[in-house]
């Protein structure tokens, strides 16, 4: 099976959300095949369906001073930060072709980063099957996951901290969690990483775990 792949570069959260919503409808209607968007965002906070504003620690004034917007969205989970140096992936996929198993879909997203970190960087990462979604190195989250499923088609996705400014996570209780930390590949390895290379590795392992062949596309051919 194939998956279309579009790398959008640095785009606003608002623009990426609008693109996702259009693609979601097209996929539900069977007008396009599965597609993975790989993006990077300016600093932004998103609140999931279980999100609590109390987990945002900066005042509205401070957020405005930092140019940070807040989006209330329909994915699972609580509050999440996105920002430069973070690889964000939005798979728009029909789970009718993935066994109609949401739990397995999330497990595979986690598996992408467990395998990537282990095989490419010799970093032991793990999932927390009992309590939290995402991928962890020791007690710190390196990949956050939050999805929505509409008529068995997915949207939203994952956020992988590569060269992310970790001090920005002090603006929130990430995912509503107060007893664990956040980390990045840069922090673990001690120097900034090649962002383009990491995007390609994420795509490589995404296709490996889901057993898909990537077809690179220009998003403008899907969105008019």
Number of helices: 5
CATH superfamily: Bira Bifunctional Protein, Domain 2
> Helices and strands, in N-to-C order?
EHEEHEEEHEEEEEHHE
**Gap between N and C termini, in Å?**
26 Å
In CATH, the topology is named BirA Bifunctional Protein, domain 2
Q: What is the general shape?
A: globular
Question: Would you mind describing this structure in some detail?
Answer:
- With 224 residues, this protein is α/β, with parallel strands linked by helices.
- The protein has one domain (2-221): Bira Bifunctional Protein, Domain 2 (BirA Bifunctional Protein, domain 2, 2-Layer Sandwich), CATH 3.30.930.
- The protein contains five helices and twelve strands.
- It has helices spanning 13-28, 60-65, 102-121, 185-189, 195-210, and strands at residues 2-10, 35-40, 44-47, 69-72, 79-82, 86-92, 126-128, 132-137, 140-150, 153-161, 181-182, 213-216.
- Strands 1, 2, 6, 7, 8, 9, 10, 11 and 12 form a nine-stranded mixed sheet that branches.
- Strand 7 (126-128) and strand 8 (132-137) form a beta hairpin.
- Helix 3 (102-121) packs across helix 5.
- It is globular, with a radius of gyration of 16 Å.
